[in-house]
């Protein structure tokens, strides 16, 4: 599962997406909140020191660099159950009791596997950023509204029936706000009620791909702004047709956003400063021998 090289990929360049095994995204909070039906339309670096506030130190990361990891789910439910059991055994000791309870609440086979894979994706992002997952993962928690939180980092999760995503952004002096959302090209397009009238003026805006692209942007903006889908989707701006990046002032924050293309997916990334994404795809194969994920944390 960790057989991929640790060198990060170059920034993703948007291009027309094509089919892949990755699946449909959901949940503007990034942790299991389904989209409204009407809108849906149907080896680690060693820690050298600790800060005075008792938070672990981390290696310097280039300004604006954000690490994104994707973990495709196994094809069958049986493999998902096997992978969930393996990840639960290996990652549970590194998570707080509240996190373990949160993950245990997902009973559906693929949903549960996706949530455990998202923690694996977060561990991969931490490792790529020069931070030890065994030090940082125990600090993962959820804010009262449901959004994930990690001290000194901006993080975001996105889930689908076939893949789990995590994004990690180092904080500066200010709190780092970041939102990541993914939608599969085979997902049903959002209902037109999810869009403002001026978004639908051009006929091209009604195409399935364009509506999915705009929806990922809306969700990523809602995550970064901390509103979730408590804000009506039609009230969330989504740029002009075909626009791939931009900057807007919304909800008393200046947000920088961009849409990215991954085969079979639209990905949208939003943060409080311009970002340079580095993407990593983790192997979905279940190790036949003893699990190797624990080796990452030693």
Folded structure, characterized:
By secondary structure, the protein is of the alpha+beta class. The chain has one domain: Ribosomal Protein L22, Chain A. Helices cover 24% and strands 22% of the residues. It has helices at 37-40, 77-91, 97-104, 109-128, 133-136, 208-225, 293-296, and strands at 25-26, 65-72, 141-142, 148-149, 153-160, 163-170, 178-184, 245-250, 253-262, 265-271, 276-281. Strands 1-5-6-2-11 form a five-stranded mixed β-sheet, with helices on one face. Strands 7-10-9-8 form a four-stranded antiparallel β-sheet, covered by helices on one side. A two-stranded antiparallel sheet has the order 3-4. Helix 2 (77-91) crosses helix 4. It is globular, with a radius of gyration of 18 Å. Residues 1-54, 287-292 and 294-298 have low confidence and may be disordered.
SSE diagram, text form:
Layout: E1 25-26, H1 37-40, E2 65-72, H2 77-91, H3 97-104, H4 109-128, H5 133-136, E3 141-142, E4 148-149, E5 153-160, E6 163-170, E7 178-184, H6 208-225, E8 245-250, E9 253-262, E10 265-271, E11 276-281, H7 293-296
Parallel strand pairs: 2-11
Antiparallel strand pairs: 1-5, 2-6, 3-4, 5-6, 7-10, 8-9, 9-10
Helix pairs in contact: 2-4
Taken as a percent bin, the fraction of beta residues is 15-25%
Computed Rg: 18 Å
Structural class: alpha+beta
Give the second-level CATH assignment, the architecture: Alpha-Beta Complex
Work out the helicity level: 10-25%
Assign the CATH topology: Ribosomal Protein L22, Chain A
Q: Quick check: average pLDDT?
A: 75
Instruction: Let me know the CATH homologous superfamily.
Output: 4'-phosphopantetheinyl transferase domain
Let me know the number of strands. Answer: 11
Q: Based on CA inertia axes, which overall geometry fits?
A: globular
Low-confidence stretches: 1-54, 287-292, 294-298
User: What is the CA-CA span between the terminal residues?
Assistant: 16 Å
* Quaternary structure type: single chain
What number of structural domains do the residues give?
A: 1
Number of helices: 7
Order of helices and strands: EHEHHHHEEEEEHEEEEH
Strand arrangement in the largest pleated sheet: 1-5-6-2-11
User: Which CATH top level class fits?
Assistant: Alpha Beta
Largest sheet: 5 strands, mixed
């Amino acid at each position: 599962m960790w057989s991929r090289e640790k060198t990060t990929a170059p920034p993703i360049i948007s291009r027309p997406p094509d089919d892949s095994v990755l699946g449909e995204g959901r949940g503007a909070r990034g942790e299991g909140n389904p989209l409204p039906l009407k809108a849906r339309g149907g080896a680690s670096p060693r820690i050298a020191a600790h800060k005075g506030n008792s938070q672990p130190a981390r290696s310097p990361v280039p300004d604006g660099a954000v690490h994104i990891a994707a973990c495709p789910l196994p094809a069958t439910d049986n493999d998902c159950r096997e992978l969930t059991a393996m990840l639960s055994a290996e990652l549970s000791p590194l998570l707080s009791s509240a996190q373990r309870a949160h993950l245990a609440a997902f009973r559906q086979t693929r949903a549960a596997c996706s949530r455990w894979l998202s923690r694996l994706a977060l561990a991969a992002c931490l490792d790529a950023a020069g931070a030890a997952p065994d030090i940082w993962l125990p600090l993962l928690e959820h804010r009262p509204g449901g959004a994930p939180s990690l001290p000194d980092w901006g993080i975001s999760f996105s889930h689908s029936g076939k893949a789990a995503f995590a994004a990690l952004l180092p904080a500066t002096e200010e709190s780092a706000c970041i939102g990541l959302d993914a939608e599969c090209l085979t997902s049903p397009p959002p209902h037109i009620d999810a869009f403002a009238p001026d978004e639908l003026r051009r006929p091209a805006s009604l195409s399935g791909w364009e509506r999915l692209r705009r929806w990922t942007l809306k969700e990523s903006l809602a995550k970064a702004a901390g509103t979730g889908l408590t804000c009506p989707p039609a009230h969330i701006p989504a740029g002009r047709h075909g626009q791939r990046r931009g900057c807007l002032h919304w909800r008393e924050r200046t947000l920088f956003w961009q849409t990215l293309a991954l085969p079979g997916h639209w990905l949208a990334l939003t943060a409080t400063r311009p970002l340079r994404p580095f993407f990593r795809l983790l192997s979905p194969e279940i190790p036949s021998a003893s699990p190797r994920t624990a080796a990452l944390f030693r």
